Structures are given as structure tokens and as C-alpha cells.
Amino acid sequence: TTLARVLQQPVALRGAGRTDAGVHALGQLAAFDATTRLNAAAVRRALNGLLPATVRVVAARDLATSLDPRKAAWRKTYVYQLQDARRPGAKPPAPPAVEAAMPQGEY
């Protein structure tokens, strides 16, 4: 993996979740344990130098204890974008309010 390449050691990466094929995730949290002389900022810079432009590490920090990203995630937000196949390239309409799409008392 790119992280193992940067750290020059095998690394078990723990993620907050996963996405389905063709789905994009923003703000994904990940953690790993490693012994390295590199600080978090240096790891972030090295990763961003090797990762494709569509994948960025926007923040990194050293932690004193191990972190479980699945338990640390406090919210997930889903946004669905639909396109009318009869009108390729047409801008989709603004999504309705979540409350309007759900039966009363279920949100």
C-alpha cells in the first residue's frame, strides 16, 4: 500500500467504514499503528505526494493511544445524486428536504 511504502513497513490500516463501488466518501477517518521517525505532518505530505489527485490526506495527527475509527465516527451523511438518463448532462434538480421524504414521526 502507499502507506506501507511511506513508512517502509507493513501497516494495518483501520478505516471508519467503506463505500460501495462508484460511491465517493468525503472526510473518511483512518488510523494505523507504526513505529517511525516521521511525524504526522511528514506522513501526510509523503502520502499526498504519492496518492492520486482525487485522494487527499487533509489532516493527520500523532495519537498517544490506538484509535478505532468506526467507534470514533459520530455521524454519517449520505447525499444521492440522480440523473435523468433521457437528458445526459442535465443538472439534477435540488433535492427535497429530508423531512418531506420521510413519513411523519420516523426521523
Description:
By secondary structure, this protein is mainly alpha-helical. It is 23% helix and 4% strand. It is built from four helices and two strands, in the order H-E-E-H-H-H. A two-stranded antiparallel sheet has the order 1-2. The protein is elongated and about 55 Å long. The model has no long low-confidence stretch (mean pLDDT 79).
- Stretches where pLDDT falls below 50 for ≥5 residues? none
Structural class: mainly alpha
| Spatial order of the strands forming the largest sheet | 1-2
The averaged pLDDT comes out at 79
Query: How can the largest sheet be summarized?
Result: 2 strands, antiparallel
The termini sit apart by: 40 Å
Individual helix count? 4
- Shape descriptor: elongated
Residue share in helix: 10-25%
* Total beta-strand segments: 2
Computed Rg:
19 Å
